[in-house]
């Protein structure tokens, strides 16, 4: 089929098609040190309770609550890691440290700050004054108060993060069943494409940006990666590269380049011969010629391999990877909800719309007051809105200090009405041409910009798909906590 003959589908359709052909991989066993980032294939239960014994919350004295305040002999001590056999009888106390088992007989702990050491009594007997009466159970963690024996502490399908590693260690789960990670091969194509180490460049040559970038993206997604090099624009060489990827038994092959309309764009015909192309054109900017195929491999027991033919323009490859390949890798790795996450953000500047394709505009999301370089009218609108909010808060606290009427008016109509003093702002990465990889630099999201004529104004609320975590976003000048009273 000629490339143009592929029906142009929407990006949500393309994502659905890909996920419908993607299956979670089977379970493998890993040790605790290999668990981070993996998805559990079985639930994890606690074999014992935490604390396993009634434990002290404070450094102080284990007491019998009914004894109340007074002077007492210190008959023993219980230190973390050492179980004292001595019971505490009424009329006596035991020294205790944080986390130590509360001795038999004691039913409360008095923190050391509420006691006073007394001179030793007869025979060198330690003595202490308990200055405050205790309530039974005071400053004691009962058995199982954090985790009860038999509790399910993690469910199948949960992703193991840093806290989960700690939880697994807590319950002694040192060997775990998790979903296997996908094996992903990356192949660049194009006679002009040369190794990044090439210098100086020969006539017509460009350095291969896509292979290193896509290997990094797949590795960041937790995949095991295989570098397949660069294929020349010949049917024979491309067939050889495809065969090599199959030989390596990868789950996914990602190619870049050679999917458009040129007479040397050979990827689509190759995939049509070797497997089934599910789509070959998507209504998106960038990434229109994005291609997805599945290959059924009788020589490998009939297993299926997914092939993503990404467009050669580096930004197109970058965007297509995140929108379509990443959710598939996540699903293979066991994610129950593999889609990119969406948040709402305000445009810091006007964005020109594309009348032919919806655009995935790269941006850096950042929280705070309007960022430097944002449209000047926005700053005024935000200041007005903030003044109105402060006024309204004062008014609620104290009706005598009503907000100025002007600020009320500004907040009641116009753009200022729904703006906060601090917002999640979408800062464009500049010229969005699909050859300019600098438009992906520091991008933590892509904005969903509708296909239409004209301009989307600064201050508009837009949806943004997260392609990176927000923990590394720029630190705003003048950003302060927004929790009242914090
Ligand atoms: N007649 C038409 N031409 C084009 C159309 C179209 O609809 N009709 N679509 C355009 C769009 S949109 C895109 S995107 C590109 C995609 O083309 P290909 O996937 O065939 O990619 P190439 O032609 O091989 O390369 C495009 C561009 O990217 C550079 N490139 C390729 N590989 C790499 C790499 N590994 N590292 C860095 N740069 C790479 C290559 O040199 C080209 O400049 O097609 C349009 N054409
Ligand atoms: O869709 Mo292409 O990816 O615009 O450059």
Automatic annotation (TrEMBL):
Record's Gene Ontology CC terms?
Answer: cytosol
Bilayer-crossing regions? none
* Annotated catalysed reactions: adenylyl-molybdopterin + molybdate = Mo-molybdopterin + AMP + H(+); molybdopterin + ATP + H(+) = adenylyl-molybdopterin + diphosphate
Q: Which Pfam families match?
A: MoCF_biosynth, MoeA_C, MoeA_N
* Key words, A-Z: ATP-binding, Magnesium, Metal-binding, Molybdenum, Molybdenum cofactor biosynthesis, Multifunctional enzyme, Nucleotide-binding, Transferase
Described purpose of this protein according to its UniProt entry: Catalyzes two steps in the biosynthesis of the molybdenum cofactor. In the first step, molybdopterin is adenylated. Subsequently, molybdate is inserted into adenylated molybdopterin and AMP is released.
Name of the molecule in the record:
Molybdopterin biosynthesis protein CNX1
Organism, scientific name: Chlamydomonas incerta
Q: What's the source species' lineage?
A: Eukaryota, Viridiplantae, Chlorophyta, core chlorophytes, Chlorophyceae
